[in-house]
């Protein structure tokens, strides 16, 4: 049952830390899950309406959507962290200035990037993998996203700020409405009005606009502090926003590196069978990834606010609860994967025996990563919210880039495809150990020095 909102941000100081964490956690998990299905919905409708070539075209253009999401999280998380810190310190005008600046920055940056990409959209399509067959569909879908994708970034960033202003439930509702409208609009534009593949992109943009309208109702709340002020550009504030949010941007980019790295490794060591087996796991992994991203999103407003309010005890208790929750969730997922791997593969259809066997083995091995992944996401968010950006960046760069790539190059030579499946689990474990060592060293450095006697 969803917990009721209580006096917005005031509840962060009056309710128990456990209750506050759950009140932010549940909407965040649901909202992140709904965000993850938007492009999947587009693919389902396009595939059923226009066939596999059109579906391939949409898949080629999907990285454009991923870039918009990455930019929105980059500025949204960075700005929202500064916003909550200012709110905790009761510097309300400063918080509003941060909010306005962040929305202005994300709007301007998205338009600039989109304008540049639109001018080179054919080259961009070829770079992303379009060929003569898929090019018309890629151009239809991509052109709409590049022209109107700013709506997606603004809505997503606005959702982060509303959550940080003590209204996580409305943020979740906005993402639910966005996904629901995307489904309805896809059906209407593709099957009723016959807009072509471009109609699916328009549905994605239209859902984002409607979701943003839902978020604007936050301004009607009596306890809402979120307000627009006169826009002004501050290079100092922009640098702080971009620096703090950079790990979130890298995390989104890391997803693309992970997919490409595993696909290339599987092609080399297991051929088409390996790629097919990995594609099954990757669909499951995308859902699990949203689960852990949701946990991080729930922690960020709380840690930022407590830091600004100098409520250090509540800050420490929150991160303890979050780490335990992340590890518990990871343990549960690992057990499910170990017991029900065959059933999970069956959810995606009937496959050749060699594909099924490799996918089942992959799930059982890869799911070991979830024992550590949630803890790493939570700690990354904690380091972001407490201005330890270098450590947050290390976590994001190491787990799906540096260590993963290095392990994909070495482990298969020793263990074959088993080494490929174990690359991410080992990467996550190594990163978690470095986080533990870092926290231990910081704790020892802050211990008071005992006076000597004699």
TrEMBL record:
Membrane topology: Multi-pass membrane protein
GO MF annotation terms: antiporter activity; xenobiotic transmembrane transporter activity
CDD domains named among the record's database cross-references: MATE_MepA_like
PANTHER family from the UniProt entry: SPORULATION PROTEIN YKVU
Family membership noted in the UniProt record: Belongs to the multi antimicrobial extrusion (MATE) (TC 2.A.66.1) family. MepA subfamily.
Compartments it resides in: Cell membrane
Keyword field: Antibiotic resistance, Cell membrane, Membrane, Transmembrane, Transmembrane helix, Transport
Transmembrane region(s): 21-41, 53-77, 98-121, 141-161, 173-193, 199-220, 241-263, 283-306, 327-352, 358-379, 391-414, 420-439
Keyword Transmembrane: yes
NCBIfam families assigned: matE
Protein name: Multidrug export protein MepA
GO biological process: response to antibiotic
Superkingdom assignment: Bacteria
Record keyword Transmembrane helix present: yes
Organism encoding this protein: Paenibacillus hemerocallicola
């Amino acid at each position: 049952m969803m917990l009721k909102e209580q006096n917005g941000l005031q509840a962060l100081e009056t309710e128990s830390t456990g209750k506050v964490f759950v009140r932010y956690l549940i909407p965040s998990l649901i909202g992140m899950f709904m965000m993850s299905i938007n492009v999947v919905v587009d693919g389902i409708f396009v595939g059923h309406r226009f066939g596999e070539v059109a579906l391939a075209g949409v898949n080629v253009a999907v990285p454009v959507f991923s870039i918009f999401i990455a930019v929105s999280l980059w500025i949204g998380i960075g700005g929202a962290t500064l916003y909550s810190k200012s709110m905790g310190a009761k510097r309300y005008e400063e918080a509003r200035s941060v909010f306005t600046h962040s929305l202005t920055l994300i709007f301007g940056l998205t338009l600039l990037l989109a304008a540049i990409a639109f001018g080179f959209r054919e080259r961009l399509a070829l770079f992303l993998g379009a060929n003569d067959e898929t090019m018309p569909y890629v151009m239809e879908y991509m052109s709409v996203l590049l022209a109107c994708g700013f709506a997606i970034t603004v809505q997503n960033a606005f959702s982060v700020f509303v959550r940080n202003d003590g209204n996580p439930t409305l943020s979740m509702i906005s993402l639910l409405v966005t996904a629901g409208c995307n489904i309805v609009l896809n059906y209407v534009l593709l099957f009723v009005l016959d807009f072509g593949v471009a109609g699916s992109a328009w549905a994605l943009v239209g859902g984002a606009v409607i979701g943003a309208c839902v978020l604007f109702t936050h301004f009607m709340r009596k306890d809402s502090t979120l307000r627009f002020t006169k826009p002004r550009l501050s290079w100092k504030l922009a640098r702080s926003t971009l620096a703090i949010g950079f790990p979130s941007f890298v995390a989104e980019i890391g997803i693309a590196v992970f997919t490409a790295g595993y696909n290339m490794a599987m092609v080399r060591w297991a051929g088409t069978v390996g790629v097919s087996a990995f594609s099954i796991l990757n669909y499951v992994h995308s859902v699990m990834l949203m689960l852990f991203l949701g946990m991080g999103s729930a922690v960020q407003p709380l840690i930022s606010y407590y830091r600004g309010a100098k409520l250090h005890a509540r800050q420490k208790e929150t991160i303890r609860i979050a780490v335990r929750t992340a590890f518990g969730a990871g343990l549960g997922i690992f057990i499910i994967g170990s017991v029900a791997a065959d059933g999970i593969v069956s959810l995606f259809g009937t496959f050749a025996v060699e594909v099924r066997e490799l996918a089942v083995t992959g799930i059982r091995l890869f799911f070991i990563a979830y024992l550590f992944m949630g803890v790493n996401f939570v700690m990354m968010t904690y380091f972001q919210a407490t201005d330890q950006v270098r450590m947050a960046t290390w976590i994001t760069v190491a787990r799906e880039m540096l260590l993963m790539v290095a392990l994909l190059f070495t482990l298969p030579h020793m263990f074959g495809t088993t080494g490929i499946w174990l690359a991410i689990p080992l990467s996550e474990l190594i990163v978690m150990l470095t986080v533990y060592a870092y926290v231990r060293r910081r704790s020892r450095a802050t211990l008071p020095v005992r006076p000597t006697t004699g």
